[in-house]
């Protein structure tokens, strides 16, 4: 059966768990071979690789700490080298600092900027050596970048808002090369890090219009569309997949 991403190769950073794993699996279901990065949990990364391979697609897990530019660069180049090409880059890996501005230390500030801002930029620079016409760059932001309803989110919101500037600047720059660049802002999503039955879930759900958390598959569906040939005229866009959180 022909699917929309046949013969495409995708790299999903932070693809071993949560939203990243959901994206990696959906891209594989749509026909792509998928490379994913992880920071610590090799076992979980291997499980996602196994699930992708069970779909009949090739997969590879690469250990790469987003705070290390060399590791990010190496992951991109290894993905292209071992898979023979690179067509789709999904910047998903991120850290989530939480706390009052005066309480967060400089180490947390530097890690957040390194992983959430610098790493996507480094990944894009590396990927541009491999992406050609029809290439796709999709970054995963956050609804918090548009609406921070709780205190303690300033650093995280700042880092995710930076992806808006990256997306729009790159879209203008890369449009003539046939490469689209888009930003997906998930809302509250049911993951290990933010479970739908967690202690703050009721309050968070109350800010959505649909009254529930997203599933990783909800976010992945939008990413898969933006990665597809059908989305070739969508670039520089911000898509809020947040259940109406920011409405």
From TrEMBL:
InterPro entries for the chain: NAD(P)-bd_dom_sf, Sc_DH/Rdtase_CS, SDR_fam
Signal sequence segment: none
Keyword Oxidoreductase: yes
UniProt KW Zinc keyword: no
Family matches, as PROSITE patterns: ADH_SHORT (PS00061)
Keywords: Oxidoreductase
Residue ranges crossing the lipid bilayer per the database entry: none
PANTHER family in UniProt: OXIDOREDUCTASE, SHORT-CHAIN DEHYDROGENASE/REDUCTASE FAMILY (AFU_ORTHOLOGUE AFUA_5G02870) (PTHR43639), SHORT-CHAIN DEHYDROGENASE_REDUCTASE FAMILY PROTEIN (PTHR43639:SF1)
Family stated for the protein in its record: Belongs to the short-chain dehydrogenases/reductases (SDR) family.
Name of protein: SDR family oxidoreductase
């Amino acid at each position: 059966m022909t699917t929309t991403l046949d013969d495409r190769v995708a790299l999903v950073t932070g693809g071993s768990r949560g939203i990243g794993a959901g994206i990696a699996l959906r891209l594989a279901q749509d026909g792509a071979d998928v490379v994913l990065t992880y920071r610590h949990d090799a076992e979980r990364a291997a499980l996602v690789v196994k699930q992708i391979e069970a779909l009949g697609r090739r997969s590879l897990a690469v250990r790469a700490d987003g705070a290390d530019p060399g590791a990010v660069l190496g992951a991109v180049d290894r993905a292209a080298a071992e898979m023979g090409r690179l067509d789709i880059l999904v910047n998903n890996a991120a850290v989530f600092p939480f706390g009052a501005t005066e309480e967060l230390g400089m180490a947390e500030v530097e890690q957040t900027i390194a992983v959430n801002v610098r790493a996507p930029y480094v990944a894009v620079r590396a990927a541009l050596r491999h992406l050609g016409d029809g290439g796709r760059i999709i970054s995963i932001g956050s609804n918090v970048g548009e609406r921070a309803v709780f205190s303690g989110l300033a650093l995280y919101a700042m880092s995710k808002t930076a992806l808006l500037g990256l997306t729009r600047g790159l879209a203008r720059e890369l449009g003539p090369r046939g490469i689209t660049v888009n930003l997906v802002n998930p809302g509250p999503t049911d993951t290990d890090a933010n479970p739908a039955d967690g202690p703050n879930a009721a309050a968070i759900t109350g800010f959505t219009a649909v009254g529930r958390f997203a599933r990783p598959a909800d976010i992945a569906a939008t990413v898969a569309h933006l990665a597809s040939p059908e989305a070739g005229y969508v670039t520089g866009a911000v898509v809020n997949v947040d259940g109406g959180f920011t409405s």
